[in-house]
């Protein structure tokens, strides 16, 4: 086969004609893995809809969790479409990056909801403070202080994360518009190329969002251990690495001629295909791990002194509280007050053993 390398993505017919048998097998495996991601997503959605409440805080947490678990099928499906139709790569990457930007902000909102609202977060995390010396921007800056946890500082962190949910879609949309007029090529980063400046804006926006999210996460993770916030944070950050750092590495290799040109498929075309196939495999693994962390009971255990009903976002009826959830926390509770999705629950027992008949529920309006 004569080589006529082109860095422009070919049509799907030309692309599949020039694939080797091994590459076609990889496409088939990627398709099966994508189906597996969708099945795992359906299982997580079924669990969340069945076991999360429908009123007040439980409902808000349910909605945020559904958005977050949808990250993996969105990334997998868009990557599979880019594998089958190489010319749709820019549009598929636009959809995946925009959804990821939304998920970054939704995760900050989920952390606030786990506390029961902003006032409860501020009251609980005051002893820790917001540590500004954190990655990815200021991990080596010794001059960065630890600031107080206040409503204003919390809002600033949320704005740092929220901006990427607006900037990323705008940058991606402008990129697609310029690409339709042959003025945008992500593989060309010369001073006269729009891709250079659009990529810089996107990178700065992402770094600011991740920096704000990491500050909030490190300041609150010790208080939310029962909500598995750390593994939830990790599975989301790994998606970010797969969509940004991994793609950047492969594009640098493509500029150096790796992978080599085959037929009319240039290095950048083959690198994009490898990137999307890797993303699909990674999303399958992350979706499986996310299935485990999002299937844990949404229960926050707090000491008697930390329970603060007046700071709750909502005070709901206890129709959704099930006795087995409390029994699973252990038989000896001795002086512990539980907050089940924002509601304060106390108990009375003569033998320090919790039984369904011994519950005494209180809810201050």
UniProtKB/TrEMBL annotation:
Superkingdom of origin organism: Eukaryota
Name under which the protein is recorded: Organic solute transporter subunit alpha-like
Keyword Transmembrane found: yes
Alphabetized Pfam families for the sequence: Solute_trans_a
Organism whose genome encodes this protein: Littorina saxatilis
This protein's record includes keyword Transmembrane helix: yes
Cellular-component GO terms for this entry: membrane
InterPro entries tied to this protein: Ostalpha/TMEM184C (IPR005178)
Primary localization class, coarse: membrane
Keyword list, A-Z: Membrane, Transmembrane, Transmembrane helix
Residues annotated as transmembrane: 25-46, 66-85, 97-116, 160-180, 200-221
Entry-linked SMART domains: Solute_trans_a
